[in-house]
Amino acid sequence: MTIRSVPEAAAGDPSLAGLNCLVLGGAGFLGLHLCRALAAAGAKTAAFGRQAAAPTGLTSDVRWIGGAFEDAGTLAHALAGQDVVFHLIGPRAPAESNRDPAADARASILPALGLLEAARDAGVGRIVFASSGGTVYAPDAPAPIREDAPTEPITAYGVAKLAIEKYLALYRRLHGLDFVALLIATAYGPGQMPGAPQGVVAALLDRAIRGLPGEIWGDGSVVRDFVHAEDVARAFVRAAVYRGPARVMNVGSGTGRSIRAVAEDAARIAGGDPAAIVHRPARPADMPVNVLDSALLRRETGWAPRIGWDEGLAATAAWLRSLPR
């Protein structure tokens, strides 16, 4: 595989023409956005997931491969001839993973090791891994958090993400299997279902649309970095052809917003009552503040987020209104 360079001050996104790309988890929220971005960049794109038929929202220029991620034969078939593989498959939400850390490890770390072995055998050029900027860092890491901040996950989900990053580095050292790990902030945007475990923006917008009060955990003081899914997909596209030395890079807006402020903004955009808030018990797995410093990604690839907060909320609300009720 030939990795093309990305201009330092590129006005547009790089071309992926001639690259064979596979998205593992292609039926998911971020997976669908990534498939569209890859196809638009000219890549010959395939998507992999458990369901037999292609999911709604997958464009006709993306080939669907259905099967179990844990099945070695199915995975080997999907990896054959691929230049870049995007690993977006993950088992549980962070708050749920601590209920059974062993099950979380079996569902995430072991299949990832199987992927690395299969990718080495298939001659894959690079793996781009969707890690979690919201869960791998220490809870007291100073914001905005840089990639050299201490890593001290407080959830089994975060431990698994960090472990997979380390295994990627090990396989690069032992076998020359190249990788880039993108540590993603809290993604949102059209296509995110209100009931998704990590879909707070969609959930708050949906409640406002239905005339219900916003529902938040704790007092709403938890601060998160929200980045639009299309901007995340663009970061993945750039990671596919990146030639520099960095292997772990944050993807975030760099702006922190409290969950209460998000609920108020969602109501403002969707026509609800910003003062109507229902508080649920706080969750111990929630880091108090998590805002990412994406300066490394910007410097190395030329990436920068393009979609503003209000614009992203409005587009997400419009998509939610289009759903059958």
Molecular structure report:
- The chain is an alpha/beta fold.
- Helices cover 38% and strands 18% of the residues.
- A 7-stranded parallel sheet has the order 3-2-1-4-5-6-10, with helices on both faces.
- α5 (156-175) links the parallel β5 and β6 (178-184).
- α1 crosses α7 and α6 packs parallel to α8 (259-270).
- The longest helix is centred in the middle third of the chain and has 22 residues, at 101-122.
- The chain starts with 19 loop residues before the first strand and ends with a helix.
- 49% of the residues are buried.
How far is the N terminus from the C terminus? 47 Å
Sum up the overall morphology in one term.
globular
Overall helicity: 25-40%
Q: What does the largest sheet look like?
A: 7 strands, parallel
| Category from helices, strands and their pairing | alpha/beta
Q: SSE string, helix = H, strand = E?
A: EHEEHEHHEHEEHEEHEEHEEHH
> What strand line-up does the widest sheet have?
3-2-1-4-5-6-10
Beta-strand percentage range:
15-25%
Task: Provide the gyration radius in Å.
Answer: 19 Å
pLDDT averaged residue by residue: 93
Q: Please work out how many helical segments DSSP would assign.
A: 10
Uncertain runs are 1-11
Number of strands: 13
What's the quaternary structure here? Answer: single chain
Considering the chains and any ligands shown, give keywords for the structure.
seven-stranded parallel sheet, disordered N terminus, globular, alpha/beta, 38% helix
Architecture blueprint of SSEs:
Elements: E1 20-24, H1 29-40, E2 44-49, E3 62-66, H2 72-79, E4 84-87, H3 94-97, H4 101-122, E5 126-132, H5 156-175, E6 178-184, E7 186-188, H6 200-209, E8 214-217, E9 223-228, H7 229-241, E10 248-251, E11 256-258, H8 259-270, E12 277-280, E13 289-290, H9 295-301, H10 309-322
Helix pairs in contact: 1-7, 2-4, 4-5, 6-8, 6-10, 8-10
